[in-house]
Amino acid sequence: MAISFLRIDDRLIHGQMAASWIGSSPCDGIVVVDDDAAANEIQKKVLLSILPSVKTWVFSISEATEKLPKVIESQKQYYVVVRSASALNRLAGQIPQLLKARSKVNVGPLSKRADAIAVNKGQSIVPEEIPAFRQLAGLGFSIEFRLLPDTVAVSWESVAKKLAG
């Protein structure tokens, strides 16, 4: 299994991830999959410079469709980070072996936005994201909402019940 950590985080790579998550599982490199970041040279440079000691790549979803199967087959261990559940859903649809490579999804910060529903401290989802989370769970991904490795995780099942009730 070459993907040691699979994360949804609307900030992609940031200090919290660097300080808390790197080291919680093996990390030979970080693969950011985000169409906007891949198309924006400034944002791409910033993401590539946040953790200078960790090799980082920034790919669009179409680039990741080509590259991630090689990452999955690698002997090294990689973190894969996407901005949203819908992006991960698109990626999983194009790379079926992703589920086998890493079925556990960590959901990090999801900023409060208009119409957002709080699901955990510092984590809110908008109604448009709910179908993507449901589809990921339906594919077999185990989804946990957890900001830091030493905090309690809230499962997608608990969030779905809260949203329904």
Automatic annotation (TrEMBL):
Gene Ontology BP, a term: phosphoenolpyruvate-dependent sugar phosphotransferase system
Keyword field contains Endoplasmic reticulum: no
This protein's GO CC annotations: cytoplasm
Swiss-Prot/TrEMBL keywords: Cytoplasm, Kinase, Phosphotransferase system, Sugar transport, Transferase, Transport
GO MF annotations, alphabetized: kinase activity; protein-N(PI)-phosphohistidine-sugar phosphotransferase activity
Primary subcellular site in the record, as a coarse category: cytoplasm
Positions of the PTS EIIB type-4 domain: 1-165
InterPro entries: PTS_IIB_sorbose-sp, PTS_IIB_sorbose-sp_sf
Family matches, as Gene3D superfamilies: Phosphotransferase system, sorbose subfamily IIB component
Cellular location(s): Cytoplasm
Name under which the protein is recorded: PTS EIIB type-4 domain-containing protein
